[in-house]
Amino acid sequence: MTKSTRIKQRFAKCAAADRPALVTFISAGDPDLKTAQSIMDGLPGAGADLIELGMPFSDPMADGPSVEAAGHRALTAGHTLQKTLDMVKSFRTHDDETPVILMGYYNPIYQRGPETFVKEAREAGVDGLIIVDLPAEEDDELCLPALAAGLNFIRLTTPTTDEKRLPKVLQNTSGFVYYVSMKGITGGAISSHTAVGEAVRAIKEHTELPVAVGFGIKTAEDAALIGRDADGVVVGTALINALVASLDDNNRATGTSVEAVHALVRELAAGVARARD
Amino acid sequence: MNQQFKSNSLKNGPDENGRFGIFGGRFVAETLMPLILELEEAYTQAKSDPAYLKELGDLNAHYTGRPSPLYFAERMSAHLGGANIYFKREELNHTGSHKLNNCLGQILLAKRMGRTRIIAETGAGQHGVATATVCARFGLSCVIYMGATDVERQAPNVFRMKLLGAEVKPVTAGAGTLKDAMNEALRDWVSNVDDTYYLIGTAAGPHPYPEMVRDFQSVIGTEIREQFAKKAGGLPDALVACIGGGSNAIGTFHEFLDEPEVKLYGAEAGGHGLEVENGHAASMTGGRPGILHGNRTYLLQDDDGQILEGHSISAGLDYPGVGPEHSFLKDSGRVTYVPITDAEALEAFQLCAQLEGILPALESAHGLAQVIKLAPTMEKGQSIVLCLSGRGDKDVETVGRHLGVPL
């Protein structure tokens, strides 16, 4: 199977416009399948350059309360791994350019069978995978089968990944490098924008791949500031929080839910557009 | 020839990647990867450092009170008719369970590594108490994560931890049990990597924890071998231990893995019965392999790979996974794992109180229930050693509630 190149092309396009890419994370099936599909379908129009689609997991150990609650809302509403793949298939019927990356934990994939899963994901129109609990030491599990199937395998690097370890982490990484801006879980606070910039430059000495920064970017101002140095900025928790604010008392979607997320994406897109002014 | 180089030994695991066969491994977020590699290196150095081993040995002897006695349960043996029953009295250790064996080993390691803040998860509270104890002993700050459900059903242990100076953080996610406490402890560790040591209480989690915890608990089995030879001669015919994560069981079994004439039995939490969906915590007899909390092991999970909460009357066994070495020993056929229901454990708890004057922890009562089934099927003159891993004072309220005696 030929390799997916949507991610590469999209980062190149953003670089040509001298701005960082806006990478948006939403949780598949949150708060229900129909609403999540509408949110996903409208993301590119609102200014998202890449889409990370969270695969809900009962025990998301590296995530903060917002992402955890999003996954639980989806699972309570009956979401499954198959439905996540179906969302991508449906999205691809009207968008063949925006990269879609599945992000989550290994067990649901392991249960489906890694070989089966990477084939199905590729066929559904997925471009890359981010699997939080698969470090480089476990590359045989899913990373190598994913690469063989033509998917990008995007790796997280963190402030604890030192110069000595970085080459091992980057070895089988493709698509882009996701720099976690802090020692912590999703939704925390970035301690120093300057330190993030330095870390991005350090990673770039070891790789030609674009470097996106995530964890802790909440506003258009954050996005603009981080986007000065980074090739992409990832926003997740803030979008989930915007969605949550629109839900009714029983955590069900309301008439404003889809627009609540898209409105914040438009603000963030304006932020990345002026990042290098 | 050195034991560890025997090619056919069941004691060879884990390999350099932390695997016991296909089980174990290092399934953690990148933020934690450098930390567990550092821990592995520190442990490798420590275990061959005579000064470290001497300090641990001294603490085991004079702080914990090791060796723990091997006790012949005469009336229980006569009552059941069959094998002679011995209790390895881990419940007589300081803090009332086997948990201190592991905590002392790890706290000395944390000290060597220069960590100043200790975090831990706890289910029944036994590991939380043991951790709070060693933190007090060594003057380190201590945060214990405990599921909100467990905080409620193990109130005396919560207060003990507070008296020992620990901060107890209730976890409300999920069913508020051990699994959720472990998620929260991992989140804390990811967020506080610079000064924090995660003191895992069972032989599970990412490599090197399963190996390290097993090594610290193996003192149980080596003492059993010595004490039994002196007391009764030869080797016991069977060993029985309860399994939640499985630290007391692996500590009991490991010494005997290459002695095929010694039968090994692990008692899992059968809860309301294996036939009740999500009504038990028997991950090996009622689950299948998957990945959670840093390792591949048998797990309770649904068809889509979402982890189930499980259920057990015993907060210490109420965990949807099990240590990876047990998964390996199950598949290899060396250890027989059996489910014990809440009702069977409750009965064993009462019988032990009446016949031996010992209140066992509800966890250990699961092991005893298996002994009750096993002993009558064995010849007179044969013998069973049960690891009596903890004392039951903490469970008096729970048992009362189940017997219709509100306290």
Can you tell me about this structure?
The complex is a heterodimer of chains A (277) and B (407). Chain A is built from twelve helices and nine strands. Chain A is an alpha/beta fold and 277 residues long. Chain A has a single domain (5-273), classed as Aldolase class I (TIM Barrel, Alpha-Beta Barrel), CATH 3.20.20.70. Chain A has a nine-stranded parallel beta sheet with strand order 5-4-3-2-1-9-8-7-6. In chain A, helix 10 packs parallel to helix 12 (257-273). The termini of chain A are far apart. In chain B, helix 2 (50-64) packs antiparallel against helix 4 (99-112), helix 5 packs parallel to helix 7 and helix 10 (219-231) crosses helix 11. Chain B has helices spanning 33-46, 50-64, 74-80, 99-112, 126-138, 148-153, 155-163, 178-191, 209-217, 219-231, 247-253, 283-286, 324-332, 342-356, 362-374, 396-402, and strands at residues 19-20, 23-27, 70-72, 84-88, 117-122, 141-147, 167-171, 196-198, 238-243, 263-271, 288-292, 294-299, 335-341, 383-387. Helices cover 42% and strands 18% of the residues of chain B. Chain B has 16 helices and 14 strands. With 407 residues, chain B is of the alpha/beta class. Chain B starts with 18 loop residues before the first strand and ends in a 5-residue tail after the last helix.
Individual helix count of chain A:
12
Structural class of chain B: alpha/beta
Q: What is CATH's topology name of chain A?
A: TIM Barrel
Please provide the count of β strands of chain A: 9
CA gyration radius of chain B, whole angstroms:
19 Å
Q: Estimate percent helicity of chain B.
A: 40-55%
Q: Sheet bearing the most strands of chain B, described? A: 6 strands, mixed
Q: What would you call the structural class of chain A?
A: alpha/beta
The fraction of residues assigned to DSSP E strands of chain B is 15-25%
Domain count of chain A: 1
What distance separates the N and C termini of chain B? 57 Å
Strand order of the largest sheet of chain B: 3-4-14-9-10-13
